[in-house]
Amino acid sequence: MITIICAEGGSSINGLKKSIEELGEKCEILFLSADNLQIDQTFNIDSDIIHSRCGIGEYHDKLTLFSWQVLNLLEVENHIFINSLKTIYNSADKFKTIKLLSKNNIETPKTGLIRDYDDAKSFMSKNNIYYPVIVKNCFSKCGNGVKLVRNDAELKEASKNAIWYGTTIQEYVEFGDNGVYKDIRVLVVDGEVVGGYRRVSSNFITNLHQGNKVELLKINDELSELSIKCAEAIGGQIVGVDILPSKEGYKVLETNTAPGTKGFRELGINVDKKIAKCLINHKKI
Ligand SMILES: Nc1ncnc2c1ncn2[C@@H]1O[C@H](COP(=O)(O)OP(=O)(O)OP(=O)(O)O)[C@@H](O)[C@H]1O
Ligand SMILES: [Mg+2]
Predict the structure, then answer these.
(1) Of all protein residues, whose CA lies closest to atom 22 belonging to ligand 1?
(2) Confidence at residue 285, expressed as pLDDT on a 0 to 100 scale
(3) Are 82 and 191 in contact (CB under 8 A)?
């Protein structure tokens, strides 16, 4: 039995369940929002492998601690997770991701974890970074917590109480061309690239949640090697890698351990089957 854990449903989750069942394996979805869910210290589930589509991230300005706690108590019950909870955290905390990637010699935007405005200013001067800069919350999702900061007054506002929020300042990577912004999403499953696309936006925030479109991308060797290296750096089996194509070359922005499959479906690429196979194979190990 493969269990998919999620907060709410969605097309990526249903597509994956269907693919697992088509391959002859049982699959259940544990909805953390279900009415009949009751968690006490004896809570456990009957499952051979868990694939979590939730983790720790910001939702309605708060961290999703309930989801994270449920996953952690299931880990106490010795369940196997693909991706592991360590990997989910490595990817959820955007600053840890940047640290892991740069430790593995992968190009990322220069990033600082800040406590306040003074930290932000000293990061800029030490790294010769000028406005505009990006200020974002390490756990934010769907492009919601990302701010483009243009001057000292905006930086003061964006860095207020930063010490309490896991705030980062980051060099702004220019990747727009005549008002069109295209970045890259590559999906790596079990150390292999299974597909990729460009996210096309009229704004530097390219998230599909913001209504942006996708465009088919032929993945060259450089992108392929880079993406596989990123998945390895965070220790993930199922990893979406987000890459900004800058004038100085590719810069990896972040990774995602519950990558959506909607973009691939729009392009007629079935990645659910590959993810399903990966989960079934890990169950057998
Ligand atoms: N340093 C940067 N330079 C240029 N654009 C950026 C930068 N940081 C973020 N962006 C833009 O903002 C978008 C959202 O930022 P990011 O991916 O860091 O967080 P998120 O998408 O909110 O998190 P998640 O993908 O986990 O939901 C990116 O996809 C990119 O388009
Ligand atoms: Mg993102």
Answers:
(1) 143
(2) 66
(3) no
